[in-house]
Amino acid sequence: MSTFPSPPPPVPATSLEEVDRKLARLHEHQGVWAGMTPSARAALLRRCMVTTAAVSDRWVATACSVKGYALGSPGQGEEYLAGTLPTMRNLRLFAEALEAGGAPPLPKTWQRPDGQWVARVFPQSALDGALFAGVTCDLWIEPGQPPSQGRIYREGATEGGVSVVLGAGNQSSIPPMDVLYKLVVDNEVCILKMNPVNEQLGPVIEDALRPLVDAGFLEVVYGGIDVGKHLTDHAQVDSIHITGSAAAHDAILWGPGDEGVANKAAGTPRLDKAITSELGCVSPVLVVPGPWTDKQIDYQAQQVASMLAYNCGFNCNGARLITLAKGWPLRDRFVAAVKAKLAATPTRKAYYPTAQATWQRFTEQYPEHTTLGDVGDPSALPWTVLEGVTDAADEYALNHEPWAGIFSFVDLDATTPQEFLAAAVPYANDRCWGTLSINLLVDPKTEKALGDAVEQAVADLRYGAIAINCWSGLNYGLVNATWGAFPGHPLDDIESGQGVVHNGLLLDHPQKSVVRAPFVMNPKPAWFTNHRNNIALGQRMVAFEAAPSWLKVPGIALAALKG
């Protein structure tokens, strides 16, 4: 018998007749949304900030019950930090952008030597700098495009449309934030289908975004594949957004089984609708060799372990391929430190229905694997390190996302930082599946000695989110950044997907976002899974985003220092 808290009862599926009624209501209101001024939209989002704050504790409690997190555990803090906090921040940033007519001020823009534009989007203010000392986020613009903002508000809104958003089952902020992007940036009203994994959060999200629901701009439905297919195929649906797997994307677009294979081969999609997607990644962590101190090894080992353990490994940007220089003198010490941190991290309920089968498949592929952590509950899985993974192009672990608490160490034939970067960039671009997110760890002495090499590596990496000295979860959570695959995946080879979400400052042509952080941050970052005070920190950060004020900074700082 499981010792984890039991999940709430399932939500009954929405009948197809009710789905049709909801779609008809949205269709009637799409013109109203399309005709709203930016200031009127901003006022509606400001009202959503109030209703989101009102359900924040209920939201977190429901998410904890879905995932088996005990109240008072670090998991509860994670649900504030990864659920209500980014949603509230997204509402605020979009409200501010709309109040600025779709073009909020950019802290800085510049052109690289090759002419590509880069826009600094964080920090925006002294408050940002105080709360995230030393952290910056730069949004790189697609080559040949200017750093323009808010296209539909600059050129005049289109007629709008109706979008179906197929919600993610892992992080509770993903469905509402995907909805907000479709509304504000793509000018479409939304019907959100909750994922059966976390469908119990649907009523909470409805209440959080109640002003949008009551105005006829958002509907929420529940059910399985039949409801999803009814939605995607419906004549009143103009576009589709999915956060999920590449297999699910292909089944929607090309069809299931043999039908899908034939349609893809013929280049004849079964649907003629715009489809955007975020479909995961086998996220590498590139560890640049350097003269790390004991403190730096300990800090980065905890950070890498947290990149995996956060949300029990059910993150599309979870660390999967910890990539090292074979000749780094500190390699073995760092590997041992990461394993020790994982061994000290409590295991969690593997709440995804596919987790046990995923773990079985990967451990059969790599029978010499290492399991870590005390697993005393049949619904939990150990933290697992696949041993013997190489950098070969056909290596299983490089080509399949392990949707569980599983990762690998991969050695590249390098000793010096220069050799490592020269090998790591083509490895990451050409051998690791997906282009969603990547992490780069480089100590300040080594980065200084490398000169422009790190910046050139960042320029060459084909990933939508690049995190330097931090987890790409910060790219996701800041919301100023974009979140989505590197541009260019065709529909018949979709990998990590097409399009982006978040993009709080409404840049028109984003290519990738680059977040930089100090090599060692103090106080302990909120995403470290051994943070001892992340519940209070998450609550205070949500309250701050609801109404930013210098008066709230001391309380946030005190909560952070107790981590």
Q: Could you walk me through the main structural features you see in this protein, from its secondary elements to its overall organization?
A:
This protein is α/β, with parallel strands linked by helices. The protein has a domain at 284-472: Aldehyde Dehydrogenase, Chain A, domain 2 (3-Layer(aba) Sandwich), CATH 3.40.309. 42% of the residues lie in helices and 15% in strands. It has 21 helices and 18 strands. It has helices at residues 16-34, 38-67, 74-99, 126-131, 151-155, 174-184, 202-208, 210-214, 225-232, 246-253, 257-266, 294-309, 331-343, 355-365, 396-399, 417-430, 444-450, 453-460, 473-478, 534-546, 553-561; strands spanning 108-111, 117-122, 136-141, 162-166, 189-193, 218-221, 239-243, 274-278, 284-287, 321-325, 369-372, 383-386, 406-412, 437-441, 465-468, 482-484, 500-502, 510-516. An 11-stranded mixed β-sheet has the order 1-2-3-18-15-14-9-10-13-12-11, sandwiched between helices. Strands 6-5-4-7-8 form a 5-stranded parallel β-sheet, sandwiched between helices. Helix 2 runs antiparallel to helix 3 (74-99), helix 2 runs antiparallel to helix 7 and helix 20 (534-546) packs antiparallel against helix 21 (553-561). It starts with 15 loop residues before the first helix and ends with a helix.
Quote the average pLDDT: 97
> In order across it, which strands form the biggest sheet?
1-2-3-18-15-14-9-10-13-12-11
- CATH class designation of the domain at 284-472: Alpha Beta
Under the CATH scheme, the architecture of the domain at 284-472 is: 3-Layer(aba) Sandwich
Helix content estimate: 40-55%
Largest sheet: 11 strands, mixed
Strand elements, count: 18
- Specify the oligomeric state: single chain
- Secondary-structure-based class equals alpha/beta
The parts where pLDDT drops under 50 for at least 5 residues are none
What overall geometry do the principal axes of the alpha carbons give? globular
Number of helices: 21
